[in-house]
Specification:
alpha/beta; 2 domains; six-stranded mixed β-sheet; 17 helices; 17% strand
Length: 381
């Protein structure tokens, strides 16, 4: 496999326009982007002890060392030293310098009551790899089982690296940043939360399974969302003929991390476990696409009577995900139920069939063709 992968996020173009907060889970490639795209610009890496100590003692050094000729200045791991944002704010106000401020979590910044530059910087997210970035190096079974964190997807021993990643996250992201005082309870919660991947959130049940209070579960999920390890996929509530539910779903950022936390073996095509992980992978592609290219709303739909469609993109496109190689009438019932609302433009069933076809206005698309259409923005037309 190649090791140099061009990322889809157009960081330089975004940075030309405005300063940026770039958040993403550990090992998604933030530092790699800095080294390859911005290596010629002034950079402060707060993981380096000498830089951290220097700036924690004298935050004004950022301002003192900057000058009018600095087009971009990069501060890596900004959440380690939020006080620097005061200096960044002053420099942005007084010069035309744009900042790239990276971090794996916005939780500490928000908790500290830090003013995130009052709208003077956009917030962007960096995701694990996408099929449009890997191209010919993409392997679906590998992606579903091991996830798409660059260092793990390209690893010769991905299982060991996934276990190490989870340990590193608990040690560095949670313990070192002081996001929670009860690490054993949070570890139990992580395993339970991973088993909720792709399911509706039931805080009471999760609290019982993790042996913590319901309010604690809500706090822990807030940590997961702020560290971008999990997302709440909102319910789409615009249907009228069939009353929709309003409970959000949980989706993890990476199917490999979720599988490792679930303590499951490798999922084989055709099993329920593979189907669940494949749906989560499609969520990853949709979420990455919306963050990088479109900033469109993403939701799911479920009626009180039990009809459910996996995703609704941009209030225009309903997407159902199946791993079947032969789609039958029964597989279309959920999309047909939503189709009766006559509110959306496109109805798509993503599957493992080998050729596209249309049945009663529903597009049945092979999964790879669907993803090509997504990244070429054909689903938005």
């Amino acid at each position: 496999m190649t090791t140099i992968i061009n990322r889809k996020i157009d960081l330089l173009q975004k940075l030309e326009q405005k300063s940026i907060f770039l958040f993403g889970p550990r090992q998604t490639g933030k530092t790699w982007l800095i080294r390859h795209l911005l290596k010629d610009y002034k950079t402060y890496n707060l993981l380096k002890s000498e830089i951290f100590l220097k700036l924690s003692h004298s935050p004004q050094r950022i301002r003192e060392e900057s000058n009018a000729s600095d087009k971009f200045i990069i501060i890596d791991e900004i959440q380690r030293l939020p006080i620097l944002l005061n200096e960044v704010h002053l420099i942005i106000e007084e010069t035309e310098t744009h900042f790239l401020l990276t971090g794996s979590s916005a939780h500490k910044l928000r908790r500290a009551g830090v003013n995130l530059l009052g709208g003077r910087a956009r917030m962007e997210h960096l995701h694990p790899l996408s099929i449009c970035e890997l191209q010919q190096d993409f392997d679906l079974v590998r992606a579903v089982n091991y996830g798409l964190l660059p260092s793990i997807y390209l690893s010769e021993n991905p299982d060991a690296d996934l276990r190490a990643y989870i340990g590193l996250y608990l040690k560095e992201e949670i313990a070192a940043e002081g996001l929670t005082r009860n690490l054993p309870a949070f570890s139990r919660f992580l395993e339970v939360a991973a088993c909720c991947n792709g399911k509706m959130l039931n805080y009471t049940k999760i609290a019982n399974d993790a042996q913590v209070a319901r309010t604690t579960v809500q706090e822990y999920f807030s940590i997961l969302k702020d560290t971008l390890l999990a997302y709440e996929l909102p319910a789409w509530k615009k249907s009228q003929k069939r009353k929709p539910i309003s409970t959000a779903k949980c989706h993890w950022f990476d199917s490999g991390v979720a599988r490792t936390l679930q303590q499951r073996g490798l999922a084989q095509i055709g099993t329920p476990e593979f189907g669940e992980a494949f749906e989560n992978y499609i969520f990853h592609e949709l979420q990455t696409f919306t963050d990088y290219c479109a900033l469109l709303p993403l939701a799911y739909w479920r009626s009180i009577s039990g009809f459910e469609v996996d995703f609704v993109l941009n209030d225009t496109t309903a997407i159902e995900v199946k791993t079947s190689k032969n789609i039958g009438y029964q597989d279309l019932k959920n999309l047909k139920a939503l189709q009766e609302e006559n509110l959306l433009k496109n109805y798509v069933l993503v599957c493992f069939e080998t050729a596209p076809r249309t049945v009663d206005g529903i597009q049945i698309m092979p999964w790879r063709m669907f993803l090509e259409a997504l990244w070429h923005k054909e689903l938005l037309q």
